[in-house]
Amino acid sequence: MLEVHRTHQAKILNHRQVEEMLDRHGWSASKLWNVANYHSRQVWDETSEIPDHGDLKDELKTHPIYKGLHSQSSQRVLEELAEAFNSWYGKKQSDNRANPPGYRKKNYYDTQGRRVHEEHPRSTVTWKRNGIKHDSKNNRVRLSKGANHKEHPKAWEYILVEYETRPGVVVENLQQVRAVYDKAKGRWELHLVCKDEIGTPDAPGTESAGVDLGICNFAAVAYSTEDADLYPGNRLKQDGYYFPKEIAKCDDSSGDRATRLHNKWSERRTHFFHSLAKHIVQRCVEKDVGRINVGDLEGVREDGNGESKNWGTHSNLDLHGWAFDRFTNILEYKAKVEGIDVVDVSERDTSKTCCVCGKEDENQRVERGLYVCETCDAAFNADVNGAENIRLDINESNSESSTSLDEDRSTGWLAQPGVYLYDLSSGFQPQVQVVDCKP
Asked: How far is CA 373 from the centre of its chain?
């Protein structure tokens, strides 16, 4: 059996009755974030090290604000902060303009510039299994209150939420509930994470595919059926330049506008990853692929000495915003549902080795998108060449998936891959070929 997790959005039917209590828990999540943020900055200033989520939990579990949420909900806030600090540290190595995670508050000032008061936003609150009791028959869920919001700290009190999902959705095996405040609608909604077990299907076939991840072309895919696809990352790069600039224009980095921009950027990136993974898996099913080799990019941001590589200002921004781990996880999940195995293979020398004759020469990649082999007199797309080497798994001579590099086969498909462009509304579509027909 294959275990999958699905997230269903749900409308809160008794919103008026539970809004105040959800507000209190959302504000408590923001306050805990700020307290942990202040502590993390102090540790960073004193030791130049970032505390991980385990250190934060040990330090703050006795803090009064920690009891504003159920214990597992407080733990999730600290985990998110630790993830945000690690992300900032990665970007900081190549971009000095990168800022650490901000505080979740908005200051209000009088006409003389004096701060009158501050307001905490309604942060997302996550309840895990120990804080949930689900009534699936009546579409109700009980969410445990934080001790600070109970009449008695040890009393078993909860928020009883009645919800409604879209037609046809059955909420079973509930693992997690997230209360998310929609600023545009001015109300809370629930994200219900359910665990499903489905039968593992048979693989579509015995063919193989190789996936090479990059920046200009986010993904190049080579198939054993002598076919290849390219997926340009232009839209992803455009967002990567546009949103940081717009966020930098905001007076308050944690204000409403900056938060909306961050959320929109994240949603667009997530949509891109899911659309791309879905399209690649669909193409693999069509081509009877049973195994996908994906280039292992661990350490790609570092040189041989463990130091961060400097690729130039714009390339550094691209590289450190390159969420290849996240995409690979999405691809693996969608492939498993179709019975396709996803295997990480080494990317070493795949970009400078000819996939036809096996000649290794870093000078053969003469331009960004062109690979020319002087030995076999072949010219083809450089990213497709890398993807084919990953499919062949050239760094594992004993691999059962490897095939001979000198076998007699056509090479035209290596030079003319199919190109799929991303559209926000319709996903990936074939690039329209414009033919100049002159009389």
From this structure: 36
**Residue 437 in domain:** no
Q: Are 355 and 388 in contact (CB under 8 A)?
A: yes
Please say which residue of 198, 219, 247 terminates a domain. 198
Q: How far is the first Cα of the chain from the last one, in angstroms, to the nearest whole number?
A: 61
> E-assigned strands of 183-333?
187-198, 207-213, 217-223, 227-232, 289-296
Q: What is the pLDDT of residues 228-240, one digit of tens each?
A: 999 998 888 888 8
Which residue's entry shows tokens 């079973």?
172
The answer to whether 69 and 28 have CB atoms below 8 angstroms apart is yes
357: closest CA among 293, 412, 410, 407? 407
- Residue 5, both tokens: 């997790």
Distance, in Å, from the CA atom of 407 to the CA atom of 226, rounded to the nearest integer, reads 13
Place of tokens 């895919």: 221
- Token output for 356: 């036809």
The residue out of 174, 198, 222 marking a domain boundary is 198
Helix and strand totals (H; E) in the chain: 9, 18
Q: What is the pTM of this model?
A: 0.69
267 band by pLDDT with thresholds 50, 70 and 90: confident
Q: 203: which 2 tokens?
A: 């693989």
Q: Is 374 exposed, middle or buried (0-12, 13-18, 19+ CB in 10 A)?
A: exposed
